[in-house]
Amino acid sequence: MLDYSVSVSPLGEIEGFPVRPGLFDVFGAMPLPSGVNFTIHTHGGTSCELLLFRKGAEEPYAVLQFPEEYKIGDVYSMMVFGLEVEEFEYAYRIDGPYDPEKGLLFDKKNILLDPYARAVTGQGTWGSQSQEHYHARVVKDVFDWGTMPQSKKELNELVIYELHVRGFTKHPSSGVRQKGTFAGLKEKIPYLKELGINAVELMPIFEFDETMNAREVNGKTLLDYWGYNTVGFFAPNSSYTAAEEYNHEGTELKELIKSLHDNGIEVILDVVFNHTAEGNELGPSFCFKGLDNNEYYMLTPDGNYYNFSGCGNTLNCNNPIVRQMIADCLRYWTISYRVDGFRFDLASILGRSEDGSPMNNPPLLQTLTYDPILSNVKLIAEAWDAGGMYQVGSFPAGKRWAEWNGRYRDAIRGYLKGDCWLAWEAAWSVAGSSDLYGEGNSHGNYAGYNSCVNFITCHDGFTLYDLYSYNQKHNENNGWDNTDGANDNRSWNCGAEGETQDPEVLKLRFRMIRNACAVLMCSRGTPMFLAGDEFGNTQFGNNNGYCQDNELSWLDWTYLEKNRDLFEFFKFMIAYRFRHPVIRKELPRAVCGMDALHAHDVNADRVNIPRDTRVFATSFAGYDKEKGQDDVVYLAINTYWEDVEITLPKTNRAGYWYLSVNTYGDENGRYFYEEHEERRIEGSFVMKPRTVAVFHVKKY
User: Which residues contact 648 (CB under 8 A, 6 or more apart)?
Assistant: First the structure.
């Protein structure tokens, strides 16, 4: 076997370039000491050409036809000597049959992007596409991770903060030097540390073309701001870098990830394997369509595209070739970028067969579940898709996968605003959705500890401030006559639609936000919230800001000082969750004899709550071995518009109840009490209208 860490000799010449057969099992382009190895595969293609371009050029300066002896099976591989990776870009052309009804779209004139490209050209400046075709660059991986160990935190130990890399720091008020970039986000790490979260979930950072569906509406240019139309699965979005990284692509992102890790913050990527940016029959053909259209996409019998993604096409995820690419991609990000987890957009598509029907044991999910490289990373499914498949509580991958808990979002939103008929669903949700994730379902006896990600808001929908400021969505600026975006928002404007100066309305709105935060942080399961919710950021009623690359979607950091008390409340609730492990995980039985988990009526002795109650409480109890004492927490929720007196459970001499949180506020305007400042409560407590209170037991 040849040792490719040292120079090897060419065996032939093509177009003046010394060449030899390459590494057939290393897909993509890999730099070598004396050249570059290029490997690509196509099942239906009959010939393959490698195109070499000068930087930024549209026409190739060299076209290298792969000889047949440089092909094994469906794989073409060639080493090309004498290339300096800083001096060229590359792409492919593949010939083959053209028969759309059979899903064959080969065209020897099409310039095709390497599906394993580690970097994509023409995308470096946000909002502009500098080249007609996508080219790839060869990447030198020169980053040194040192001896940094992989995180071993379980999902239940995290508080996840969902953010958009550009929108997080693009606003003039962000106060960073490199606005809208990975470097800008790195500048905000001290803020993340102060807030107290220990995981960030980054909205799509794979290479995408934000200009693909650009249009003008009301004098503003609308772009594909969110980035859910992937161009290159192995390449970071080059327009998110502060400086050009021509052949060291990813360094700035790696520096960000390392800095986050150094500060105890994990990184979860929002990944989109349900469709690509090539769209439907009318969309461009720049990669997969020209490689093997009928293998990479789900096609109807007449060669058209199934659209379970709502975006024009659907990746054929359980085809062996696509399955291998997805697994290779996740391994690459885990190894080369040290990513801690992945959230899979419209993950139910990952379990569909080539005709779109659901599979009992999808091969892709099996592959990812048992892959040894991925064994410690978090796998989180958005367990539904645009084709109507909804699998919350039944995603077919067992205990290895967690789910975005859509039932939690809907039940808590509805109940907190006063939909009393959702009381049972809300109580189950606070308790970890054990009816979905407990014994007797596909997740086994997991009871929500590592199976569900609880959220009330995310990028898709209202911000938390808007959830209590608007009864209806206001997406007129998106250009679709307000027909886009969800209609079932379960929101409440608290008495005035949109912006208002009414002090009573504003007071109620912020109380409702505190209610939501307190419930989320005191619910079993992993909490996640949207960046900016902690200081009342607004999108002015737009619940589908996918195209709004402007002040509407960018975080306005002036709200941080304006609503500093809300930020301090979020800080406290996050810290409170970490101080009380009984909320996050199963502990040994409490010495005081209280059950590990119970729902309670207004009278704590009644543990069977009415189906339509406006008030209920949840108790968590267990023995904390580290502290050598019981950990007992009591969360009470009053959605009624009048005062309600509640009683607290008997503690059997374990200690006394102390009030930690009262979202209504006391006579001094305090909503929470730090350790050693809590207020002792004797037996009962009067909850003010539409409030949440949190208590715990102390021995003194």
Answer: 604, 634, 657, 681, 683, 684, 685, 695
Give the Å distances, CA to CA, from 329 to 85, 118, 476. 22, 10, 38
* Contact status, residue 541 vs residue 472, Cβ threshold 8 Å: yes
Under 8 Å between Cβ of 482 and 491: no
The two three-digit tokens of residue 24, written as one number: 């057939």
Exactly one of 157, 382, 425, 534 is catalytic; which is it?
382
User: What backbone phi and psi angles, to 5 degrees, belong to 55?
Assistant: -55, 120
Phi-psi region of 569 (alpha: psi -120 to 50; beta: other; left: phi over 0): alpha
Range of the domain at 60: 1-139
Give the full edge-to-edge strand order of the sheet including 47-53.
62-65, 47-53, 89-95
Please, which pLDDT band fits residue 398 given cuts at 50, 70 and 90?
low
Q: Are 594 and 557 in contact (CB under 8 A)?
A: no
Catalytic-role residue among 162, 249, 345, 631: 345
Considering the domain boundaries, does residue 270 fall inside one? no
Asked whether residue 290 is domain-assigned, the answer is: yes
Cβ-in-10-Å burial (0-12, 13-18, 19+) of 66 comes to buried
157: annotated active-site residue: no
- Identify which of 345, 347, 317, 403 has the alpha carbon closest to the alpha carbon of residue 204: 345
Q: How far apart are CA 490 and CA 543, in angstroms?
A: 12
Domain edge (last residue) among 89, 113, 139:
139
Give the pLDDT confidence of 212-227 residue by residue, as tens digits: 889 999 999 999 999 9
- Given phi > 0 = left and psi -120 to 50 = alpha, else beta, which region is 498? left
pLDDT at 141: 85
Query: What is the crossing angle of helices 564-579 and 503-521, to 10°?
Result: 20
Q: Are 294 and 104 within 8 A, CB to CB? A: yes
- As given in the structure block, the two tokens for residue 44 are 């239906």
Reduced DSSP (H G I as helix, E B as strand, rest coil) percent helix, strand, coil of the chain, to 5: 25, 25, 50
Q: 527: which 2 tokens?
A: 């909490």
The pair of three-digit structure tokens given for residue 217, joined into one six-digit string: 């509406």
Angle at 46 between CA 42 and CA 51, to 5 degrees: 75
Report pLDDT for 7. 65
pLDDT bin (cut points 50, 70, 90) of residue 155 is very high
Above 70 in pLDDT, residue 99? yes
Q: Against a cut of 0.90, is the pTM above it?
A: yes
Give the angle subtended at the CA of 238 by the CAs of 234 and 240, to the nearest 5°. Answer: 115
| pLDDT band with cut points at 50, 70 and 90 for residue 441 | very low
pLDDT beyond 70 at 243: yes
The structural domain count of the chain equals 3
Residue 562 and residue 566: Cα distance in Å, rounded? Answer: 9
Specify if 646 maps to a domain.
yes
**Comparing 697 with 130, which gets the higher pLDDT?**
697
**Residues in the chain, overall count:** 700
Query: Is the predicted pLDDT of residue 445 greater than 70, yes or no?
Result: no
Last residue in a domain, options 350, 377, 404: 377
In a domain, 437, yes or no: no
Contacts of 353 (CB under 8 A, 6+ apart): 318, 359
Two tokens at 58? 């549209």
Most trustworthy range by pLDDT among 232-246, 321-335, 423-437:
321-335
Across 329-333, 367-371, 468-472, 604-608, least confident range? 604-608
Looking at residue 65, which CATH number applies to its domain?
2.60.40.10
Burial (CB < 10 A; 0-12, 13-18, 19+), residue 327, is middle
pLDDT of residue 10: 82
What mean pLDDT do residues 292-307 have?
Answer: 97
Decide if 382 is catalytic: yes
Mean pLDDT of the residues in the chain: 94
Give the mean model confidence (pLDDT) for residues 362-385: 96
CA–CA separation, 366 vs 163, rounded Å? 29
Q: For position 601, which CATH number holds?
A: 2.60.40.1180
